[in-house]
Target: DNA-binding transcriptional regulator, HxlR family
Amino acid sequence: MKKENRKSAKEFTEECTALLSSVADALYAIGGKWKLMIIIAMARGNKRFTELQKQVTGISARVLSSELKELELNGFIVKKVSVGYPVTIEYELLPYSHTLEEVVGALSRWGIQHRDKIRRDMTSAGPSEKPNKLPKVK
Amino acid sequence: MKKENRKSAKEFTEECTALLSSVADALYAIGGKWKLMIIIAMARGNKRFTELQKQVTGISARVLSSELKELELNGFIVKKVSVGYPVTIEYELLPYSHTLEEVVGALSRWGIQHRDKIRRDMTSAGPSEKPNKLPKVK
DNA sequence: CGGCATCCAAATAGATACTG
DNA sequence: CAGTATCTATTTGGATGCCG
Model:
């Protein structure tokens, strides 16, 4: 992605190959529709299963359940079960989740500017013109 | 995600709500297994369909084809068809793709450190101990 | 409330064959 | 080479019911 032409073509190619594999690794761990969303919702203070399901719009209990398990296995969160009555179950972010701050920040900034771009594109194209040319923007 | 306690709880909650929606928007546009990978491969200089399919390991022609179409619709790339003989088809990154550099950089850095963490976890746990406790790491 | 099990529908993706 | 079409296999997800 970087484009400093001081570098040889070979160096540049190698750099991109490394990018390809490290980004693939990242996507493998935190890719998918939900993982980041759940972590953000938890950062917001939501700890209970039902709270999370309300926050993360569109997720079903079944999927939330399995995503939480994966997040736990991968060391992002812990599940805490109280011994009192009634038993309450809370999920908490582990420190490792905070290593994602940079990624979340970058995605958020890009998401904001992308949303703006889409809006500009739609209005500049005028209403009812090529309505089929701007997909994937909810 | 940020944790500056100068902010009121209300401000913090609002901040996280905004995060949730902007990250959702970003994931909606560039989420999924392939889009970022294809863009990175193209940054590496790959422009032809078959080249891309070789670079982006695991993608099928059918999926690559449809992903390229979406990337084109969303303004990340252009498809250029030469008029010569034989007809050659090349895909090129548009400037808008470069707005993703920050995201790609963050993901790449995180991917690298995550890979290291996984390796440490595996070796410190010792071989053949809880081999079922570290999933999702290819 | 916080799940898991089951069943079923829908979306996604691979394989293969075929075309300009 | 650069795809498309078709069929099928796999994955994914929703709905429901049950249980501690």
Q: What stands out?
A: Chain A touches chain B through 62 residues (CB under 8 Å). Residues 60, 62-63, 87 of chain A lie near DNA strand D (CB under 10 Å from a C1'). Helices of chain A lie at 9-30, 35-43, 49-55, 61-73, 101-124. The beta strands of chain A are 77-81, 89-93.
